[in-house]
Structures are given as structure tokens and as C-alpha cells.
């Protein structure tokens, strides 16, 4: 009888150990991408996985194509917190189909957002300016910064992919016939600077921009409604193609932005994987966080710690009560 009891206990302990081993987080590598929102999310994940789930989390340098390819071919890193999938869609789908990758969830719930924008203070004075028809109707309210005889539209910097789409939409809407001249801002900094300068003077501004960015977090802008809806096929096959001869109007489709993990990590650490599926930001939230990062010249780690201190109401929805308590303890010890 005693031997049977000992055997039963041993089997129970063995099963418990196997379960614990299967659900042990262990060493985890997280891609720290070279732009602010991705670095912020990577550092938040490192803090939460380390202090809430007992992972041995480590950040490793990353970028979209090399990180995704390495995850498929080498199984490393374990996590890509913010992967913009439009430029990686075919390879990503192959990795998922082959059982090498998992889509944990949307890191940006709204997706990457592009469009033509005007300052909110202009729309507050004249709501018509929230539509392309209203902008064209009031074309003379957007004088070119170097030539008052024409109006100015700020396009995307030369050499960027968005230069093609913004120029094609400029043609599709016949903005040149309406009296606009396409302005090359010269660089991303030049484009951002033109918005900042307009805001300082409460001056008119009309042009291309994208989110999430610190600029749209700091300066309230309104995305102009083209009245066309989104035609994804037209956008992919013509608007975003350099030699498209006859583009038609379409709003920019959102760019899906996902958290990607290896299949091995998802199976080894299901609780941690579940957290990644819940961890998501709206563009409005991320715009504000990026503006704070820029104003405080913060790196990813400092920004993540500030987020954990200031946004408990956000991150606490991503984790269990037990994990939340562990994270609060960790914050108390910083």
C-alpha cells in the first residue's frame, strides 16, 4: 500500500514538473527595432515579461525584413513586437503557413495610418476643410510658402515610398488644376518642421503625413476625407506604383501592424504569448507617448518605465491580477 502511495505521489509530482517545464518562460529574445514606437513596445514587453512572467528577457537589434527572415529561418528572435506587414506580407504568410511563426495580435490596433492632413484649428474655423472638396473650394487659403500666386501641398520626401502614392493621389484629385503646387519637403525633418512652423504661427498647412508619430501627438491634425472610401486593389496596383498612368482616388488603407512570435515561443510560454495578444495601442495613445519621448529625449527603457508608472489603467488590462501585483512590486523597487 505504501509503495503504491509513493508511486502515485511520484507520478503526480512528475506530471506537475512536466507541466511547469512546458509553461516555463525561460530565455526570451525581443527585437528592438530602430524606430521609437517599436523600441518603446520592446522595452515594455521586456519589463512585463521579466517581472510579471519570470522570463529571462533580452533585447536584440532588429528591423522588419532581417528580423522576420531570421525568425523563420533560425527561430530567433522569439518576438518582434511591432512588425509592419505590408512590406513583409508574402514572407510572413509563408512563415505562418509553415508553422514557424504566430500572429500574436495587433500591436497598433488602428494599423499604420497615412493620409492628407490639415491643422485642427483650420477645421474648427471652417468644418468644410475636413473634406477634399472643401480644401479645393478654399484653395487660396493654402498659399505656397515661396510663391503666393499658387497654393502649396506638402508631399512626401523624394526617395520615400510614400512619395509615389502622395504624388499619384495629387494627380488623381487634379490638385494642380485646382491651383496647388506639389512641394518636396526635402526630408522627413523638413516635412515635420513645416507642420511645426505652421502651428507656431497658426498658419495654413495641407499635405501628407502618417501615424503614429510624435508630430501628430504634439500637433492636432485632421485627416482629410477624400469621399472615396478605401479601394485597396487600386491603391496596391496603381496608386503605390511609380508608372501608374491613370490613378483614381482612394483613401490610404491602414497598414496592419502585428506582434509576431516564433511558434516555439508560443508553445513554450502560452501565458506570455497570451499577454502579447492583448497588448495593443491605439494610434492616439501611441502619438501621445511618442510626443512625450521626443519632448523628454527619452530612450526606450526610460519611456517604458514612465509608461508603466503613468498608464496602469492601460497595461493592467493586458495581464492577470497576479501578474499585475508582481509588476506593481517591481515598480516599487525601481
List keywords for this structure.
334 residues; alpha+beta; D-Maltodextrin-Binding Protein, domain 2; 2 domains; 3-stranded antiparallel sheet; 51% helix; disordered N terminus; transmembrane transporter activity; ABC_Gly_betaine_transp_sub-bd; signal
Describe the fold and architecture.
- The protein is of the alpha+beta class and 334 residues long.
- The chain has 2 domains: 26-111 and 256-332, Periplasmic binding protein-like II (D-Maltodextrin-Binding Protein, domain 2), CATH 3.40.190; 113-239, D-Maltodextrin-Binding Protein, domain 2, CATH 3.40.190.
- 51% of the residues lie in helices and 18% in strands.
- It contains 17 helices and 11 strands.
- It has helices at 2-22, 36-53, 64-74, 89-97, 120-125, 132-137, 161-172, 175-178, 188-201, 214-218, 232-239, 263-268, 270-278, 283-296, 300-310, 312-315, 321-332; strands at 27-33, 56-62, 79-84, 101-106, 113-119, 143-144, 147-154, 180-183, 207-211, 221-223, 257-262.
- Strands 3-11-4 form a 3-stranded antiparallel β-sheet, with helices on both faces.
- α2 (36-53) links the parallel β1 (27-33) and β2.
Amino acid at each position: 500500500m505504501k509503495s503504491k502511495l509513493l508511486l502515485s505521489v511520484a507520478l503526480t509530482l512528475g506530471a506537475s514538473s512536466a507541466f511547469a517545464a512546458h509553461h516555463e518562460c525561460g530565455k526570451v529574445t525581443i527585437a528592438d527595432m530602430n524606430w521609437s514606437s517599436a523600441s518603446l513596445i520592446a522595452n515594455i514587453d521586456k519589463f512585463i515579461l521579466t517581472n510579471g512572467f519570470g522570463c529571462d528577457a533580452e533585447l536584440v537589434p532588429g528591423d522588419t525584413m532581417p528580423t522576420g527572415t531570421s525568425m523563420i529561418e533560425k527561430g530567433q528572435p522569439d518576438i518582434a513586437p511591432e512588425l509592419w506587414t505590408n512590406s513583409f506580407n508574402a514572407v510572413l504568410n509563408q512563415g505562418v503557413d509553415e508553422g514557424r511563426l504566430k500572429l500574436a495580435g495587433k500591436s497598433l490596433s488602428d494599423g499604420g495610418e497615412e493620409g492628407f492632413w490639415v491643422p485642427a484649428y483650420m477645421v474648427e474655423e471652417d468644418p468644410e476643410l475636413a473634406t477634399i472638396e472643401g480644401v479645393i473650394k478654399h484653395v487660396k487659403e493654402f498659399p505656397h510658402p515661396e510663391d503666393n500666386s499658387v497654393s502649396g501641398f506638402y508631399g512626401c520626401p523624394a526617395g520615400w515610398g510614400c512619395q509615389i502614392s502622395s504624388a499619384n493621389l495629387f494627380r488623381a484629385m487634379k490638385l494642380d488644376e485646382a491651383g496647388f503646387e506639389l512641394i518636396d519637403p526635402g526630408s522627413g525633418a523638413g516635412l515635420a518642421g513645416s507642420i511645426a512652423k505652421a502651428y507656431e504661427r497658426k498658419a495654413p498647412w495641407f499635405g501628407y503625413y502618417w501615424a503614429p508619430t510624435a508630430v501628430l501627438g504634439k500637433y492636432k491634425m485632421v485627416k482629410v476625407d477624400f469621399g472615396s472610401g478605401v479601394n485597396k486593389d487600386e491603391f496596391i496596383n496603381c496608386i503605390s506604383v511609380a508608372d501608374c498612368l491613370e490613378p483614381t482616388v482612394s483613401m490610404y488603407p491602414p497598414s496592419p501592424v502585428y506582434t509576431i512570435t516564433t511558434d516555439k515561443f508560443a508553445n513554450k510560454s502560452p501565458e506570455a504569448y497570451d499577454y502579447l495578444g492583448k497588448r495593443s495601442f491605439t494610434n492616439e495613445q501611441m502619438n501621445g507617448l511618442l510626443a512625450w519621448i521626443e519632448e523628454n529625449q527619452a530612450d526606450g527603457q526610460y519611456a517604458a518605465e514612465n509608461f508603466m508608472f503613468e498608464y496602469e489603467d492601460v497595461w493592467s488590462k493586458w495581464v492577470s491580477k497576479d501578474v499585475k501585483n508582481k509588476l506593481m512590486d517591481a515598480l516599487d523597487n525601481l
